[in-house]
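wait is this the right file?? whatever heres the structure
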């Protein structure tokens, strides 16, 4: 899928409610084009034009949250945006200068003690957590501006010196470079933030107040969790910085949780996958080198298998611990890959790159062809089954030498050798991706 001459920065997969409302004729059609961030001026004036850098859907699929390189944050009603007749009123709210710098990452989370939140990270390392119920409550940007003008007339210039933007419940500035990605654990008690300055930040989403006690969950008559309250002394919400990792002397660019949440895998600028054991955040516990260039995107397939998108334009299939390259899913002809994402139903893997294209890859080799049990199949398939299912896959895009360029770990070489010997004794052969040459000679 082409995006014309515009560089694509981010995208989020469609949700079940949206998928049900879109027909086959709509898949190749632009439903609407909404000017949300086109007048947001970047902080550092240069040839850079305003752009929508990051976006994420709410779990229900009703709302799309977007962020720009000018630091603004907005929410879009998906139903209105999907119809060109109502798209002009699709923007629910917009917060100008939501972050001091251009926003580089956005993430949706749902802490049990707080409710639905989004978290943003910007170019200078500022992390902000937003209670979406306090960001506008469905009102328009014009209404927000009029209310802010009335309140500003009653306050002095010093009252807003430390005040956070409307809806922001916590702000952290623990990094010196851009925030690349976020992750939360399964219980949504811990927020992880990776930065290009080489440091991993861990934020506790359970703590409340200055005494460090558990945040109290207050509910109104409708049994809904009340919006987050700001402490007037600290000008912060209930979230607290837990700790920071050691500086890895390498840019941290992408993250995903593996091994049932026991391992955090982080892609770096030097092409190495760093591993942290959950709860031990000082230094890494393991590393998996081999990518010739930076690892800008990671996508979890199952607890043992993930996809990596690298600056060399190749989408690789990896097994972690034991570490092994299973093969290559495809490539973008040498253009750096920015994002990897699965479609609903796990039928397609999408990758976007600097070539201004979103390319779709068949994901049935990972999850099988059963339409009804896609999620169940994902849990049941192990790395060996995945390798078997992709044994006939061919590297697309003419990059048949990518497997030969892989630099594997010495310990993994010995492990691979022992596995191969055992397989040969059993009369079997270790599954492997076919290159273009293998596919050509197999016809003979």
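ok assuming it is, sequence goes like this
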């Amino acid at each position: 899928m082409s995006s014309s001459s515009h560089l694509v920065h981010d995208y989020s997969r469609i949700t079940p409610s949206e998928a049900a409302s879109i027909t086959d004729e709509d898949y190749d059609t632009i439903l609407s084009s909404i000017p949300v961030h086109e007048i947001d001026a970047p902080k550092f004036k240069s040839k850079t034009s305003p752009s929508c850098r990051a976006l994420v859907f709410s779990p229900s699929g009703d709302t799309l949250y977007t962020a720009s390189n000018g630091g603004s944050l907005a929410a879009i009603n998906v139903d209105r945006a999907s119809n060109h007749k109502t798209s002009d009123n699709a923007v629910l709210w917009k917060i100008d200068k939501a972050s001091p710098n251009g926003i580089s990452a956005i993430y949706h989370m749902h802490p049990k003690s707080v409710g639905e939140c989004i978290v943003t990270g910007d170019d200078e390392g500022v992390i902000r957590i937003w209670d979406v119920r306090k960001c506008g409550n469905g009102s328009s940007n014009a209404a927000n501006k009029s209310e802010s003008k009335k309140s500003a007339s009653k306050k002095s210039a010093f009252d807003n010196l430390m005040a956070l933007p409307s809806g922001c419940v916590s702000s952290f500035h623990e990094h010196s470079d851009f925030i690349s990605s976020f992750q939360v654990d399964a219980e949504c008690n811990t927020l992880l933030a990776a930065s290009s300055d080489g440091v991993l930040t861990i934020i506790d989403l359970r703590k409340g107040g200055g005494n460090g006690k558990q945040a109290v969950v207050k509910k109104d008559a409708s049994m809904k969790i009340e919006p987050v309250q700001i402490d007037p002394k600290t000008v912060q919400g209930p979230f607290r910085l837990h700790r920071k990792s050691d500086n890895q002397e390498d840019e941290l660019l992408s993250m995903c949780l593996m091994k049932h949440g026991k391992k955090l895998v982080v892609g770096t600028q030097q092409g190495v996958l760093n591993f942290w054991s959950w709860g031990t955040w000082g230094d890494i516990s393991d590393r998996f080198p081999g990518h010739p260039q930076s690892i800008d995107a990671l996508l979890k397939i199952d607890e043992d298998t993930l996809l990596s998108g690298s600056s060399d334009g190749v989408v690789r299939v990896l097994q972690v611990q034991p570490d092994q390259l299973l093969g290559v899913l495809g490539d973008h002809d040498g253009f750096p890959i920015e994002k990897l994402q699965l479609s609903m139903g796990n039928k397609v893997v999408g990758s976007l790159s600097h070539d201004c294209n979103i390319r779709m890859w068949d994901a049935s080799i990972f999850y099988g062809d059963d339409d009804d049990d896609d999620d169940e199949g994902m849990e049941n398939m192990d790395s060996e089954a995945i390798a078997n299912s992709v044994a006939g896959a061919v590297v697309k895009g003419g990059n048949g030498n990518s497997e030969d360029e892989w630099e594997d770990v010495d310990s993994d070489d010995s492990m691979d050798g022992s596995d191969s010997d055992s397989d040969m004794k059993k009369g079997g052969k270790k599954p492997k991706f076919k290159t273009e040459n293998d596919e050509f000679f197999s016809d003979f």
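The mean pLDDT is 75. so i think its the right one actually
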